[in-house]
Amino acid sequence: MGAPKKALKRKQGISKLKPDAESSKNEESNSDNAVDFGTEDLLAAELNGDGDSTDEEIEENEVPDSDAEQDPTIFDSDDPDESLIEFETGSEDNDSEELEFEEDDDVDDDDDEEEEEDEDEDENEEEEHENSESEGNTPPPKTNNKSLIKSSIGKEDSSNNSFSRRDNTVLDKMTERQHKSKNQIEQKSSNMRNTSRQKNSQKSVNTKISSIKPHITNLSSGADEYENDTSDEEDIRNTVGNIPMKWYDEYPHIGYDWDGKKILKPQKGDQLDNFLKRMEDPDFWRTIKDPQTGQDVILSEADIDLITRIQKQKIPDAQFDEYAPWVEWFTSEVMKMPLRKFPEHKRSFLPSKVEAKKVSKLVHALKMGWIKSTAELEKERAQKNKDPQFYMLWQTDDQPEEMRRIHKHIPAPKRHLPGHAESYNPPPEYLFDSKELKQWNKLKSTPWKRKLHFVPQKFNSLRDVPAYPRYIKERFQRCLDLYLCPRALKMRLTIDPEVLVPQLPSPKDLQPFPTIMSMVFKGHTDMVRSITAEAKGQFIASGGDDMTLKIWEVATGRCLKTVPCGGIIRSVAWCPNQAISLIAVAADKKVLLINPGVGDHLITSKTDQLLEIIPQSDVIVNERVKAAVQWEQTEGENWQKGIRGILNHFQNVKQVTWHGKGDYFATVMPEGQNRSVLINQLSKRRSQIPFSRSKGLIQCVLFHPIRPFLFVATQRNVRVYDLMKQEMVKKLLSNSQWISTMAIHPGGDNILVGTYDRKMLWFDLDLSTKPYQTLRLHGTGVRGVAFHKRYPLFASGADDRGLIISHGMVYNDLLQNPLIVPLKRLCNHESYNDFGILDVMFHPIQPWVFSAGADATIRMYT
Amino acid sequence: MAGKSTDSDVPQVQIRFITKQQQFAVPDFPLSVPAPVIAVELNTLVNELLKESIDAAKFIEFDFLVCSEFLRSSLAEHLEERGVSTEQVIDVEYLEKHPEPEPQDCLIHDDWVSAVAVCEKWILTGCYDNTLHIWTTKGKHRLTIPGHTSPIKAVAWISLGEETGTFVSASQDQTAIIWDWNISGNSVDCVHVCKGHERSLESVGVNYDSSLMATGSWDTMLKIWSASTQDDDDGESSSKRTKTEHGKTRTPKVTLKGHKEAISSVKWSDKSEIITSSWDHTLKLWDSELGGIKQEIPGNKSFFDVDYSPLSGTLITASADKHIRLYDPRSTEGAVVKATFTSHTQWVQCVSWSTTQDYLFLSGAYDNQVKLWDTRSPKVPLYDLSGHEDKVLSCNWSNPKLMVSGGADNTVRIFKSKYAMC
């Protein structure tokens, strides 16, 4: 019964392990086979890899079951320490055993022999156990056994099984004590038997172990695994499971058997008992306590033998031939035909595209000479070594130093190479003569002006040349220079100055415009402050400091008429209404309305008639207005002179300007405070003061040619008032100190403002309140500006005597900004008291311009 | 002469002398002269040749026409300017030089003399002091005629007989007055006052048969009036009304509208054609019978004066620059300006053709100069007739022997033009 049992046992172990490891039925069958044909079984186990260790495991596990109750403590417990302690307490004297087991823990693989013995015992024990105790196998192992037996062994096993069954039932009723003793007895007997029986089985095991050994050593961690794995099989008698047994320390029992009955702890006995036992029992030293069952287990001879073998670090199986000839199960040679089931993949036959690309790249690079083959490199190197080697003596001078830390480093400027003068033996012409030396010495205070910073010296030989005394100083100064004068890349813009000049049409294409002086109107005896032209352009009128108004014929320059006005004439304005022949003249505090009596006689006479009659009006003149201005009818002498009306202002009138229709005219008194501006109506002989508050020193006013707007220029700004709505529409910011005069483009959308700070500002009312363009053409304050009524021309006169004609084209297309091209500077007036040109005016039809100068002349340019 | 400068390095030019003045004809063979030869040297050469041929004792001054322009620089330069090859034989036409006009007289007025007209031996002047003056060519003042109320801008003779003379004056007082002058009695009578212009008159022109006159004015109108002293043409009512006033008021026969600005000069080119110059940069040719514009010649400056030469059929104009331009109204294609005469430094105010010679004309300008021009010499005038101390306002060469000009220096200068030929 023993031998087959053992085999069965083994199988159990294998089978138990297998599910853990792989759980494949094939291998089970293999193991089955192994039972039948010894070596084959082993082989199979080996193939499985885990085979032998499983064996051990099983044995370990079963040890407690069989003989000694202490066995399980060794193999089974999760905590090796714990088990050790227990072990120690249990059997202190069994040093050797202890050691054995400890070692067993550490080196599972070595105690095969012992285990083998154990196995045998185990089997016995198992049997006995099964017989005596009803605990029996847990159902799964049972079935396992069953199946295994069925498959492999057949009858034997079945009988065995049935036997064990019976045992289980019988054993239930036995007392522990009995049980224990019985066990012991049985164990003994079985041990005896085992020794004899073992041999046949162990042989095979030995061979197995020997073959496996190298594998086992590798699987060092296997032991733990098995301990855990076998845990459920441990408890075939005690069903408490894998728990620390100390929990049952305080109870009389140690767990429960299969039927739920308590497994009582065996009688411990006192020290005396213990002592007696030791004295009496010859097997005491080999008795260990099974912590699971609390039973004492007496280790068999085989166990002891195994333990000692392990202790001695021998192969546990005594029969194992360590030096058996090597069976080369797997050849080490490389076989020609690979052992592969599937054919090579298709791509392994096709050339790789990626590789081809890489190769072609390399080939290309080789062709182009970007890379060189090692052979070529070798060749080159050889060539290089063969040739004489040269190097640049001044290489460092040529190449910029590598200063990686400095971004865009600029190397220090190189010093000049020494010349002949620096030579220790210069040609005699380089040596200073006395004069040169004197000169050199003279520049002592300004050494940088010297041509040479040293005096050339002549020595007979290089030996005589002394150390250069200024070496350190010069080096230091050079360093200072480099350090204190930061070097920077100068970005020199290569912009052609021509490019910066805006693309302006050539003045030639902008003709006609006045180019030469054609006429000088002489007759005034003092500065001519103001000029005005008749609408047809046949006559002009002028007035100035000589207090006379003069009427001139344009074509001939003939003064046709002179009207004394009794005051410095600051402004004259011809009435733009062609049905009236009238000139408004601002002479000191008076504004005279003068009929020049030139042109159409019908009109002049009509004008006279018109001004003779005083229109009757019911409107009571405002006190404020009355204080500012009074209308006066003229008679007698004044009438004879042509004066048809006088407006007596309370301040000096600086400017008089007509509205486009010729009925209204505005007068400006800069000192008039809040009554600076008056608007007078000719037809009703009435005046109004449009502004109640003064916004500053009003310089001049201007009527919009079309719309009812009034432009009022103070010192800094130009305000645009809507006379109908009586509100300010716009404020043009001149950004200059003092506005002198202004002119409006006949279109009414552009204003030219002249300032005393030499500027001319072109305002485009459609664009913004800031100047569209600022023209700085004059060297001094601008005194007069004027637009031509028909030609795209404007002119400006200044104190620098210059009259500048410019092309100022205003396009009907609102998207196109005005084009301004300065054309011509005419400078014919003479300076008088730092005054040059005081007024500028265009001929109303021809492209001719008139300038009134401080030199008492009016000049016409065509 | 030729041998005088036969240096080998000086290029030689082959010339052949020709002339239209038969009395100075020289043998017609080519001569070789050095290229840089100037007119004076040619002159001596011609005189030498003449001496050989006709044995004329007198030294005659000639002018030389090469390529129909007067030789004023050296021959080489002259040829180079005109791009003529020096390889060929060059025809050099020579003609007797126009003799220098001699200042004859200076008639002093009280004011600017703005208009002057000569007829045979009488000189009529208009002044800025509103008066007309009649002088003899000998410089004798015959008459002062007040009547206008404004400066007189133009005067013109209508007819001149043994006993009476008729002339017209245009003034800034918007009237033109036709005067009848009794020579022997030395009395003048205002025959007609031509009223109709709305602004000052600038010029007046009388046609060749003295039947019509035209006036141009600042009111841009051209008005045609009857120039006859008899008031047969007008209706009775108007003459009756005007008789009550001073003289007889005459109304225009035709008013021609077309100019945009003042008409500065009016000239009759034939019986019915009027040529006007205006400040609006145009010349216009009017048909007085049809009353319309025949032709318009645009310029680029205001025109101040125009004169028509019946001999050459061309126009010369004075405009608001220093150039005198020669227009040919007959040519329709190409440049209308045939030549530009530039020598004046200021506005040219008046021009006047010679009545006898196709090439000569007179110009007066604001640079105080009167210049005698030959159209064949556009760069350089023949002579500068200086003498005026102020702007020259008018000039007249109706009498071929007298060049008369009036200026702003209150004088009328008379230059005697000696006849060069014929």
Automatic annotation (TrEMBL), chain A:
Localization per record: Nucleus, Nucleolus; Nucleus, Nucleoplasm
Composition-biased stretches (Basic and acidic residues): 17-28, 153-178
Q: Pull one GO CC term from this UniProt entry.
A: preribosome, large subunit precursor
Entries under SMART domains matching the protein: BOP1NT (SM01035), WD40 (SM00320)
- InterPro entries per the UniProt record, alphabetical: BOP1/Erb1 (IPR028598), BOP1_N_dom (IPR012953), WD40/YVTN_repeat-like_dom_sf (IPR015943), WD40_repeat_CS (IPR019775), WD40_repeat_dom_sf (IPR036322), WD40_rpt (IPR001680)
Ranges annotated as biased composition (Acidic residues): 52-130, 224-235
Which Pfam families does the record match to this protein?
BOP1NT, WD40
Q: What is this protein called?
A: Ribosome biogenesis protein BOP1 homolog
Originating organism = Cephus cinctus (Wheat stem sawfly)
Ranked from the top, the taxonomy reads: Eukaryota, Metazoa, Ecdysozoa, Arthropoda, Hexapoda
- Encoding gene (name): LOC107262938
From TrEMBL, chain B:
GO CC annotations, alphabetized: nucleolus; nucleoplasm; preribosome, large subunit precursor
Q: Which SMART domains match?
A: WD40
* Lineage of source species: Eukaryota, Metazoa, Ecdysozoa, Arthropoda, Hexapoda
Known Pfam families for this protein?
A: NLE (PF08154), WD40 (PF00400)
Cellular location(s): Nucleus, Nucleolus; Nucleus, Nucleoplasm
The signal peptide here is none
**WD repeat residues:** 145-180, 194-229, 256-287, 341-377, 385-422
Annotated HAMAP family: WDR12
Residue ranges of the TM segments: none
Q: Which GO terms describe its molecular function?
A: ribonucleoprotein complex binding
Q: Which InterPro entries match?
A: NLE (IPR012972), WD40/YVTN_repeat-like_dom_sf (IPR015943), WD40_PAC1 (IPR020472), WD40_repeat_dom_sf (IPR036322), WD40_rpt (IPR001680), WDR12/Ytm1 (IPR028599)
Q: Which gene encodes it?
A: LOC107269187
NLE domain residues are 13-79
Q: Which UniProt keywords apply?
A: Nucleus, Repeat, Ribosome biogenesis, rRNA processing, WD repeat
What segments bear the compositional bias annotation Basic and acidic residues?
237-248
Repeat as a keyword of this entry, yes or no, is yes
* A Gene Ontology BP annotation from the UniProt entry: maturation of LSU-rRNA from tricistronic rRNA transcript (SSU-rRNA, 5.8S rRNA, LSU-rRNA)
**Which family would the database say this protein is a member of?**
Belongs to the WD repeat WDR12/YTM1 family.
Protein name, per record: Ribosome biogenesis protein WDR12 homolog
Q: Where is this region: Disordered?
A: 229-255
Q: What does this protein do?
A: Required for maturation of ribosomal RNAs and formation of the large ribosomal subunit.
